[in-house]
Design goal:
The protein is α+β, with helices and mostly antiparallel strands. It has 13 helices and ten strands. The chain folds into two domains: about 5-90; about 110-349, Bira Bifunctional Protein, Domain 2 (BirA Bifunctional Protein, domain 2, 2-Layer Sandwich).
């Protein structure tokens, strides 16, 4: 049996329903009856003062009122929200002819892109891509590359030593080649390239850095000659700079190769006429290379009377600077978006 108070509240609810015209008045309706100090909330708190036999029917009556208000509120709310949405869709037209806002997007570092491009070419020729520790032992970085302790060429490397003169930051990726030959135990042919970061004491400027990326390669097999080396170099430079690029070797000297050569390519910019890029010579130096020194083969377990090989080394930054017309190598390691945004253009090409 409903109390007079319950019936009075029910009548008030029905009257207030008629007064609701928008979502604002609907929210006020909800607060009036279901808020913390709302009418139905206060009714609910009165149960403790009611006789035990009347508690159950009173509680049921209060819950019924709560359900009436809640259901009405939810139905009306959906109706008003749909009306608001339809009105917005009607009035807010989208002009699809307006230019879109360009959202900045990241792209791979152009240096990494070039290294991956070189890797793909060598993988297609049967080479493996290998790496090794950047913190290296003197044994692998110098001694097994025909650079014993006290050799004057060590001074030219300007090495970062960590523990005495036995542990250092590698000054080249050639130690990876030595480790690979040791694994071969003088019995299997080797075709590898070793891209990786190297370290030398140097002042950072537009063309020098204390850390830089090298891409070194090594092939060890039977009856290998300079002509095999030249053919290999030809493939990669034509891939990077164009099919018309020519390659030439000039005599040079490295402790771990004999004979040793400097690798030049014909200038891709002026086609040999002379320009600032090639310093008006028509040729650009891109690598050092040579036939693996017999001492290096012997120390790594390969009999130089049976085995021979060639090795070469590119500076990744130099290749990228030439290929993409970059005049400052520091841009490769810069995090200033105003400078590195040029990578986006090359990525899309």
């Amino acid at each position: 049996m409903k109390s007079d108070k319950i019936e009075s509240v029910q009548e008030t609810i029905e009257q207030d329903k008629e007064k609701i015209k928008d979502i604002r008045t609907l929210d006020e309706f909800k607060v009036k009856y279901l808020g913390k100090k709302g009418i139905i909330t206060e009714l609910n708190s009165e149960i403790k003062n009611i006789k035990a036999e009347d508690k159950k029917p009173f509680g049921q009556a209060v819950n019924e009122l709560r359900k009436i208000v809640t259901d009405f509120y939810e139905d009306k709310k959906k109706k008003y929200e749909n009306e608001i949405l339809n009105e917005r869709l009607k009035n807010e037209a989208i002009d699809i002819s307006l230019p879109a806002t360009r959202i900045p997007m990241g792209s791979p570092n152009i240096l990494e892109k070039l290294i991956e491009e070189v890797e793909e070419v060598f993988i297609s020729m049967g080479y493996d891509v290998v790496d090794g520790p950047e913190v290296e032992e003197d044994k692998y970085n110098f001694e097994m590359l025909n650079l014993p302790k006290g050799h004057p060429a060590r001074d030219a490397q300007d090495t970062f030593y960590i523990e005495g003169e036995e542990v250092l930051l590698r000054s080249q990726t050639s130690p990876v080649q030595v480790r690979t030959m040791l694994k071969g135990q003088g019995e299997i042919p080797i075709r590898v390239i070793c891209p990786g970061k190297t370290y030398r004491r140097d002042d950072d400027d537009a063309t020098h850095s204390h850390q830089f990326m090298q891409i070194e390669g090594l092939l060890v097999d039977k009856n290998i000659s300079l002509s095999d080396l030249k053919g290999t170099i030809d493939v990669i430079v034509k891939k990077l700079f164009g099919k018309d690029i020519e390659t030439r070797f000039r005599p040079s000297y490295y402790q771990f190769t004999e004979p040793s050569v400097e690798v030049d390519i014909s200038c891709f910019n002026c086609k040999g006429d002379g320009c600032n890029i090639c310093k008006h010579t028509g040729w650009i130096t891109v690598a050092g290379a040579g036939i693996v020194h017999p001492n290096v083969l012997k120390m790594s377990g390969y009999d130089p009377k049976k085995w021979s090989g060639f090795a070469f080394g590119f500076g990744a930054e130099r290749l990228a600077m030439l290929k993409y017309d970059i005049d400052d190598c520091r841009v490769f390691y810069n995090t200033d978006l105003r400078e590195v945004k040029i990578f986006d253009r090359w990525e899309s090409e």
